[in-house]
Write the structure tokens for this entry.
Amino acid sequence: RMYACWHRRHKADHEVGYINNRGLYLACCEDASGTGDWFTAAGEKHSFPLSDLEPFKIAEPSGPGERMSSGASFVITPSGAFHAGVNADGKMKHYYRLRSTDELQVGDGIPFGSLYAVGDTVYVIGLEEGRPVIFSTREGTQDWREELRLTTGRTYSHGVSTMADGAIYYYLMES
């Protein structure tokens, strides 16, 4: 399977007050190459290329006058739970649900960062006050638990993380 999660940027949205981006969209293709039919979060089938994005919209993280980041960090766990982190107006919003048939929930309290799934645990890796932090929660929940918080040493302006060979690597740029 291939999943895609995105925001959109359209002139008409800008004209009514949205800054940068709008919406949270989710799509799935059974063919990992992405060349087959695509499905909405509700399971509706759409042929490629996609001509209408509205069926794929699952949330509206921002309102007119609010600034939203260029992309959502998202993860689908092995059992199908969905988690996404969206930076809307300087605050990280957490969208999640255990099953595709469950109502999408929204919470906060996680750092800006990237989401990863290891089994039924979701991790967010980011920076707070310029230092790395890692939080975890069970899939489909908002029960974040702090796993790591560096409070001394260098500070960083941003970072990029990746997962390879069962380990998560976090590349950081000093302030």
About this structure: The helical segments are 11-15. The chain has a mean pLDDT of 90.
